[in-house]
Amino acid sequence: MSTTSFAVENDLMRCTTMSSSKLRRAYLTEVKYECLRALRAPAFAIPFLLLPIALYVLFGVLLAGSMSKGDPTVARIMFVNWAVFGVMGPGMFGFGMFVATEREQGLLTLKRALPMPPAAYLLSKMVMAMLFSAIVMVTLVVAAVVLGHPGLSAGQYIGISLVDMLGSLPFCAVGLFIGTRASAKSAPAFANLAYLPFMHLGGLFYPLPRSVQPLEFISPAFYLDKLALRLAGVPSLDQLAIGVAGPSSHGGAILQIAVLAGVTLLLTGLSIRRLRRVG
Amino acid sequence: MKPDCLAELQGVSKRFGSVVALDGIDLQVRPGELLAVLGPNGAGKSTAISLLLGLQQPDAGSVRLFGQSPLMLEARRSVGVMMQEVALAPELRVREHIDLVASYYPEPLSPEAAMETTHATVLGGRPYGKLSNGQKRQAQFAMAVCGRPKLLFLDEPTVGLDLKSRETMWDMLRQLVRNGASIVLTTHYLEEAEALADRVVVLAKGRVIASGTVREMRATVGHKRITCSTVLPAELVASWEGVQSVSHDRGRLQITTSHADTIVKRLVAADADFQDLEVHSAGLAEAFTELTQEPTQEVA
C-alpha cells in the first residue's frame, strides 16, 4: 500500500472552504452523473426518449395527417401537443421514482451526511429532466421537418423547444412532490395517477367536450400547451373543434406562465420542507 | 467543547415518539483514535452517529463536529462516511461514484489514488449494480476516504466481507489512524473492536454503560456477575464495598463486582434465605452481551 497517497495527515489547518470553481465543479459533477445514470437506465431512458417520437409519428403525423388531409394547422397543433407530452414524463417520473427510491434506500441520507452542496441534489435532477426534454425536442423537430411538415420557422422551433424545456420544471415539481411522499414501490403508480389525467385533461390528444373543459384548468400541461400553441400561431384542439381559427389564447401568456411558475414554486417548496423535516 | 475533540455529544437526548433512543449521553471523539461504538440493535448507536452527522437533531444537549454544528458544510468537509444500508445508483461505475463524492471535498484524492489505496482499482470500471456485497463495501470504503477526511464514520464496514478482505480492511484502517485520521466504528464483531480500537464505548438503551480503552474493558471483564433472588434491597447491596453496580432482572438481583467471594459471604450473612445463586465470569464477548442485555433497571 502506498503511504503517500493515504496521507490524510491530521493538519487541522487544512482548509474546509471551497473555492467557487471547486463548488462549481461539484455541481457540474453531480449534474453529469445524474444525467449519465438516467441515460444508462433502460427502464427510464427508453420509454421517455423513444415514446414521444414514436407516438408523434404514429398519431400526430400519420393518423392526424390522413384524417385532416394534410391540414397545416392540425400538423402544427400535433407537433406542439406531442412535444408537451414528451417533456412531461422525464420530470414527473425522474423525480417521482428516483427521489422515492433514493429516500427509501438510504442514498439521500448518505448525501445529506456527505458535504454535498445542498442544492446539487434537486438541481442535478432538474437539469437531467431538461436534458431529456431537449433530446425529445430534437427528435421531434427532426421528425416534424422530415415527416410532419407543420411549416414552422426555425425561430418557432427554437422558441417552442425552449418553452417546453423550461415547461418541464412544473412536472419536475409534481414528481418531486410525489417522490418525497410515496414509497419507492408506489411512486410510479402515483406518478401515473397524475400523469394520465394531466395528459388527457391538457387537451393534447382530442378536443374535450365542453362539460369537461373546466377540468382542464387543473392540468399544468394545459397551460404549457397554450403557451407553445401561441408561439406556433395556432388554436388549441378545443378551439379548432368549435371553429376558432386564430392563435390560441386562454387568459394571456402572463397568466399561463404565472400558473406554471406557481405550481413549480409551491410544490418544490412543500417538498423541500418535507425533505428537511422527514428526509 | 474541549479543543482536542473532533466530535462530541454532550448530554444528548433523542426520542422517537415514546421510544427513548438516546438518554443524555456524552461521547467524545479525540484526534488520532479509533473509537469503537458497540451495542445491541436498538441501543442507540446509529442515532448517535446520525446526530454527529447532522442527519437528526437532538431533543436536548449539544452536538459539535469540528467545533461547529454538523449542519455546517464546512464541518462535514472533514468527514468521510460509510453507511450500512445504502443503495447507490447501479448504473454508475465505481470510479464514477468515487469521482462524484470526491467533488464534494476541497482537497480530495483522485479516484485512481482512492482506489489504489483501498485496493479497489480492479473494481473501477465495473457498474456498481454488478458488484457482490463485499465489493460494494470496498467501493463504499473508497468513497469514504476519497475526500481525505480527518474523521471517518464507518457503520459496520466489514459486514459481508470474507476473512481475507476483512484483514485487508483492518490493515487499511490501522494505516489511516497511523497517518493521523480518527475513526468512529460501529460493529457487531467484538474481535474487530479488540483488534482495532483504542477506545470502546458500549451503548445500551440509549445510555453509555461502559467506556474505556480495550485494556480497561478487559479489566471490566475481570469483574464477576452474581445473580440471586434475595429480599435485600438493591440500594443496600449497592452500598457495599467492592460492588460496582446492582440491577434488577426479573425479580432477581444482578451484582457486578471485582470481589465475588467477599460479596457472596456478605449475602449469606445478610440474607440466609437467598436463592438461585449464580456467579459468572465472562470473556469480552460475553461481557458485552451481558452488559447490553435486556430490561435491567440500574440503581447504582
**Biggest sheet details of chain A:** none
Rg of chain B: 22 Å
Which residues of chain B form runs of ≥5 with pLDDT under 50?
295-300
Number of helices of chain B: 11
Multimeric organization:
heterodimer
Strand tally of chain B, please? 14
Spans of chain A of 5+ residues with little confidence (pLDDT < 50)? 1-5
Number of domains of chain B: 2
Rg estimate of chain A, integer Å? 21 Å
Task: Give a verbal description of the structure.
The complex is a heterodimer of chains A (279) and B (300). Chain A is built from 10 helices and no strands. With 279 residues, chain A is an all-alpha fold. Chain A is elongated, with a radius of gyration of 21 Å. Chain A starts with 19 loop residues before the first helix and ends with a helix. Residues 1-5 of chain A have low confidence and may be disordered. Chain B has 300 residues and is of the alpha/beta class. In chain B, the strands form 3 sheets. Chain B has a 6-stranded mixed β-sheet with strand order 5-6-7-3-8-9, with helices on both faces. In chain B, strands 13-10-12-11-14 form a 5-stranded antiparallel β-sheet. A 3-stranded antiparallel β-sheet of chain B has the order 2-1-4, with helices on one face. In chain B, strand 8 and strand 9 form a beta hairpin. The chains are: A mainly alpha (279), B alpha/beta (300). The interface between A and B is large, with 40 and 50 residues.
Report a brief summary of the structure:
Chain A has 279 residues and is mainly α. Chain A has one domain. Chain A contains 10 helices and no strands.
Please write out the topology.
The complex is a heterodimer of chains A (279) and B (300).
Chain A: H1 20-40, H2 42-67, H3 72-104, H4 107-113, H5 120-148, H6 154-179, H7 187-201, H8 220-232, H9 237-241, H10 252-277
Helix pairs in contact in A: 1-5, 2-3, 2-5, 3-5, 3-6, 3-7, 3-8, 5-6, 6-7, 6-8, 6-10, 8-10
Chain B: E1 7-16, E2 19-29, E3 34-38, H1 45-52, E4 60-65, H2 73-76, E5 79-82, H3 94-102, H4 111-117, H5 133-145, E6 151-155, H6 163-178, E7 182-186, H7 190-196, E8 199-204, E9 207-213, H8 214-222, E10 224-229, H9 234-238, E11 243-249, E12 252-257, H10 260-270, E13 275-281, H11 284-291, E14 297-298
Parallel strand pairs in B: 3-7, 3-8, 5-6, 6-7
Antiparallel strand pairs in B: 1-2, 1-4, 8-9, 10-12, 10-13, 11-12, 11-14
Helix pairs in contact in B: 3-4, 3-5, 4-5
